[in-house]
Each structure stands twice: as structure tokens, then as C-alpha cells.
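Write out the 3D structure for:
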Amino acid sequence: MAKEAAGDKNQESKQGSKQESKKETKKGPGAKPDLSTILGFVLALGGILGGLLIEGGKIGDILQFTAGMIVMGGTIGAVMIATPLNVLKGAASRLVGVFLDKSPSFTSLIDLLVGYATKARKSGLVGLEEDAQESPDPFLKKALMLVVDGTDLQELRNMLEIDITLDEAHGEAEAKVFESAGGFSPTVGIIGAVLGLIQVMKNLANIDEVGHGIAVSFVATVYGVGVANLLFLPAAAKIKAHVHRETQRKEMILEAVCAIIEGLNPKLIKSKLEGYAYSEPVAKPKKDKVEKDKGTEQPAQAPAAT
């Protein structure tokens, strides 16, 4: 009786964990602030402003609305001229991902794919149709539907590889938008400085205003170089990193789906996919889960008395 009760508890815990995993896959990865971006931006800006204050300057010395308007307006206009409209829309949406981390966990995805492989070995490939319909990931949904439809392995691989290549190319094009902005903004800053010097030349008769006017004219150069090296170029690098990670995720799904079609053992599939999650930190087990595991453990038998 005790063994049957323990077996029922284990089955209930397994069913509960499966239901929780399904809920997590339906919700998808939640967005959280990217601490590396936020802390890096604060540190860089704080270092520059701190150095200005230490040298006896004032923050008001570099707060010039006209200089900011010249730099940002000229840079955005130049980028719009050089970039198609659909790429601009994609790049704007990518900018949100620089400050919000939406990258999925490879470890949880591996567990999900291994679960699909186990189900396919028990109920056949057709049994994955319901999972394909419920998947919130468009790429994973397409891959599973191709499996359910009985698509040839080589044809399936070719179709998914085309999707991966095109998505990667789109991501690279969106990252280049910020690279081009980083190249235009310093030049536009120089244009703003020259415009400021032109206004200074008009007031050479009043020598007191010449020095102040020259200082103000170079603020546009500071804005152009600062925005390029603190925002545009780092954002392009972060977007490229996200594109590379997304490509790895889709390649992992492709390998898992091909292994499911070939009928490989789920354990072999898991060991094959674990290489994709080598860079992820190991998640600490939750306290309630550890307590449940301790509660289900059987007490050790006392040694027989001699």
C-alpha cells in the first residue's frame, strides 16, 4: 500500500510538472530589463559627466537644445535616406530589445524538445499535432507541422535552413541601421560645430562673447561622438548578439526535429542538444521543489541489529 501511495504521488508530481511546463511554453519568455545595457550606459555617462565636474565644468555647459536637434535630426534623416522603410521599422522594434532581455532559456527549450521526442516514440509523429497547434513560437510550430505532415527529412531541413538564413539576414540588416547612425552622427556633429562657428564669426566685434560662442559650438561635436559611441554602435553590437543567439535557437530546433524524424532515442537527442546551452548559468532549484523532493525521498533503512 505504501509503495502504491508513493507511486501515485510520483505520478501526480510528474503530471503537475508537465502542466507547469505547458503553461510556461504558452506564456513564452517574459521580458526583463537588460542589466548589462542599463548599467553600462549609466557607468559610461557617469564617467564622462564625472570627469567634466572634476575638471571644474558644469553640466549646463553641455546642455544645448539646438546642438541636440542638429545632431539627432541630421542623423535620423541621413539614416532614413540610406535605409528602406521596412528595415527601419524592424530596427525600431529591435531597439526595445537592447534594453529589455527577451532571450529564451535554452535549457527549458531542450527539455521541451526532448518531451516531444518521447511523445513521438510512444504515439507516433502524428501525436505532435496538438503540441504544434499550441506552440507560441512560429518557427517551432512550423517545424512540428512539417513533421506531422510527413515531410521528407531532406526537404524539411532545406525549408527550415532557408527560414533561418533569411531571418539572420534581416537581423543583420537591422543592426546595420544603428551602425550607419553611428557613422553619420559624428559628421553631423562637426556640421553643427561649423554652423556655431559661423555665428561666432558674426560677433567678432564683441570679444567677450567669442570664447563663449566657440565653446557652445563644439557641444554639437560632443553630442555626435557621444551618441555614436554610447548608443548607436553598442546597440548595433547588442542586436547582432541577439540575432546570433536566435539563430542558434532555431538551429537547435532544426536538429531536434530531424532527430525526432529519424527516431533517435530521447536521451541521445538531449545529449546532442546540450552543447547549445553550455554558456547558460545553471539555474538554482526552487525551495518548494527541493522540499517536495525531500518529502518524496524514502527514509534510509536502519541496519539490522547484530
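The two ends are 29 Å apart (CA to CA).
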